[in-house]
Design a protein that fits this description.
By secondary structure, the protein is mainly alpha-helical. Helix 1 packs antiparallel against helix 2. The two termini are 13 Å apart. It is built from 5 helices and no strands. The protein has one domain. It has helices spanning 4-24, 37-53, 61-92, 100-118, 121-144. It is 77% helix and 0% strand.
């Protein structure tokens, strides 16, 4: 059921994904083709906000902060997984992998490599502060528009 909390959670996580995607792009190697990178991450933010954060809103400020941090963590992990899968498929078309199991294992390897690239203080700080703000805004939306 659509609620204001779900809408605000989806929009706030999409904005967080947009900001963080902009911070990640300069960290990647020069000449990287990002394609739909930002749009995919924003779509994941909308899905995570709507499905995870929105229904859990309205339980108080501390729970709101925890909800925002959980939503941010799920967004980060799902983003790493999806972007790792996209890169795996790009490499699979070049016949890099010997069998399907190597390709599936490469998703997690690539995602871990991406995590180490983005694990810099300004990105991590943006994620944490943004997650807290998203959680608090979602909690306020739930309290204001019941």
């Amino acid at each position: 059921m659509p609620t204001a909390a779900r809408l605000i959670a989806a929009l706030s996580l999409a904005i967080l994904a947009f900001v963080v995607s902009g911070q990640i792009m300069p960290l990647m190697p020069q000449g990287t083709d990002f394609g739909y990178f930002t749009y995919v991450n924003m779509g994941l933010g909308i899905i995570v906000g709507w499905r995870l954060m929105g229904p859990r809103a309205g339980r108080g400020r501390v729970s709101g902060i925890n909800n925002g941090l959980t939503g941010m963590a799920v967004l980060l992990l799902s983003g790493l997984f999806v972007q790792g899968a996209v890169e795996m498929f790009r490499l699979a078309y070049r016949h890099i992998y010997d069998n399907p199991f190597d390709a599936l294992a490469a998703i997690f390897t690539i995602a871990l490599e991406y995590f180490f690239v983005i694990a810099v203080p300004n990105v991590l700080l943006t994620l944490v502060i943004g997650g807290v703000i998203c959680g608090l805004v979602t909690d306020v939306a739930k309290a204001r528009w019941k």
